[in-house]
């Protein structure tokens, strides 16, 4: 629980909540289920936003392996009922130690229900993987 609280604080700071003059931020804890083979998704993902669903940041198993802390991600669309975002990771490895190459992540969250959908694309092996789940605000 202490690690989750620490992570939530890190994500809130990335989202801009660390500044007194910044808009209030919030963090989502998302429980994911596998829809097909793994595709680089763990069972949890954390996303943070500034109020108004802007300045997104993300943290999950793969990001932890490479960066050890949350990373800013690209806001693709913030119109209508869903917010869409994406990011790219380079340097991930298969279990046998060989390089995966780059992995592209795309996702969206329904702003009202907090239902999340994610896709990862591995161009080197033309793999596409999907997951979805439910998020809840934790900060």
Comma- or semicolon-separated keywords:
139 residues; 9-stranded antiparallel β-sheet; disordered N terminus; mainly beta; 9 strands; 2 helices
What fraction strand?
over 45%
Number of strands: 9
The biggest beta sheet reads: 9 strands, antiparallel
Distance between the termini: 13 Å
Give the overall shape: globular
pLDDT average, as an integer? 83
Q: Uncertain spans, ≥5 residues at pLDDT below 50? A: 1-5, 15-21
Run of helices and strands? HEEEHEEEEEE
- In helices, the fraction of residues equals 10-25%
The order of strands across the largest sheet is: 4-3-2-1-9-8-7-6-5
Task: Tally the helices.
Answer: 2
Over all CA atoms, what is the radius of gyration? Answer: 15 Å
Q: Structural class of the helices, strands and pairings? A: mainly beta
Write structural notes for this entry.
With 139 residues, the chain is mainly beta. Helix content is 14%, strand content 53%. The protein contains two helices and nine strands; from the N terminus they run αβββαββββββ. A nine-stranded antiparallel beta sheet has the order 4-3-2-1-9-8-7-6-5. Strand 5 (74-77) and strand 6 form a beta hairpin.
Strand and helix layout:
Blueprint: H1 2-14, E1 25-34, E2 44-50, E3 54-60, H2 61-67, E4 71-72, E5 74-77, E6 82-93, E7 99-110, E8 115-122, E9 127-137
Antiparallel strand pairs: 1-2, 1-9, 2-3, 3-4, 5-6, 6-7, 7-8, 8-9
